[in-house]
């Protein structure tokens, strides 16, 4: 396939072209895909509404592009390598022909169970091939998938099912994750007790074979529904702007947002960015360690790599099971060429030293990728020196659920690299930095709020069921710009360094979480009156969660109380949102207008109390001393 940039000069040329004539640039890229009907117009947009249409009136099916068209050129090439949690368990491989067949069967099973174009199907599953197959089966028939990370609680799952009025949930019986054995179907059963009236069917994939509860009429086995189906399932003709999926993500308010991506632009952009950032070549084996429950898994395990005809690895396990060398063992085993992971995993493995890395032959590695949060210099250097043996370029890829694909990154091996800097925008991505008033900050060696001033093909189209929320969150802050919520620096050479969120969003181990979301969960504890949550620097997680809690009565056993609070958060959201530190306080620092002054709470949480800044506007300045003296370290 064409459109792989081959030098930094070529990148500059392409970038220039993408800015001066975006429509012809993207039309040329889009020409390399298969469409039932081409577009009448490449782009129509208005950020004020927002309304963005790419490839207007074009018709396609993304699975034709991920599967069918490869049947002519690479039917016997491996599409997916599945590496199970247990290293002794057999590896499963699907060629493009086999994957096509599996997807068609699953698609027919969905149809047989009443799923039609436009219906929403929720997934709550481990990283097994059936997850990728199920997602593609939805896309095949035009159903909209909403994958919920299987670490979320029953409550969080129920909220997401209800928000999208899903008709079906697809889950597994149990999950194996490291040494853990997680009763997933059980969580689904609990969620469905919480008024999820829209659900008609629960399709259960037999993963471990352990006993589960069964609701006759509602629950069905995946293998019984899928296996007898025909392997012929014509792809539904989709408009380029028809919905492909919903993926929930946290914002600064308590309620997660259903970010909506559509078929045409998302396909074009994820494929284009995949090939260029990872410099994917025919025959390469590519591995992204993310979970398909996050956007990284959607775009860079499933859609981008498969549309590009790549071999993509799916890993069920965790980095440290059964030992801290597991990632490297898998790299050696499958001769992985591109490896894409998160800084939190790198930091966690770095703590085990070089020895678990050095045990394995990593000479197949050509490109290393990072995503999810800023990568600190120490982790960057270890990744580069120990894992990459100084011979593999690192691509530090900045992007978001809302952007659908990678926005800022080096192109593996072509672009200049600088630790902790994501680098330059991809072709088609027109960035700008603005000040608090929205005035653009020109020139280099400057810092500001990161915005994008022109649409790229995989920009979010709406937030499900609430378009106004999409407008106010992303497009109303600054006129005619998409606001990312991140602050960034542009260095003297124009390279971007992401500083982090400027809103009330935490980034814990690369997972986004709104402070309000965690506070709402903590407030469910019967003894909690009010709480405030902030992030603080954490060696492994990047950010840890620090919670300040006001209680109805005095707490005699703080440890026992902290455990109760963590249990409540686990129940409401999931274990990833558990506060690391919990401090009981008698009040929170508030301004006269009643706003919590988080600046002070952040400073105390990070142990930096020497200069708390101006506290004179506080309604209750005396509380600051109490908070300082009781700080948890
Ligand atoms: C893909 C993904 C998005 C937020 C984003 C930013 C942070 C992601 C980053 C990064 C610095 C990187 N982020 N990649 N920060 N350098 N390479 O992670 O999507 O879960 O929506 O998170 O993550 O703060 O705004 P999502």
Automatic annotation (TrEMBL):
Residues 68-455 form the AMP-dependent synthetase/ligase domain. Keywords: Acetylation, ATP-binding, Ligase, Nucleotide-binding. GO terms for biological process: acetyl-CoA biosynthetic process from acetate. GO terms for molecular function: acetate-CoA ligase activity; AMP binding; ATP binding. Residues 517-595 form the AMP-binding enzyme C-terminal domain. Its EC number is 6.2.1.1. Residues 11-66 form the Acetyl-coenzyme A synthetase N-terminal domain. Pfam families: ACAS_N (PF16177), AMP-binding (PF00501), AMP-binding_C (PF13193). InterPro entries: Ac_CoA_lig, ACAS_N, AMP-bd_C, AMP-bd_C_sf, AMP-binding_CS, AMP-dep_synth/lig_dom, ANL_N_sf. The keyword Cytoplasm does not apply. Belongs to the ATP-dependent AMP-binding enzyme family. This is Acetate--CoA ligase.
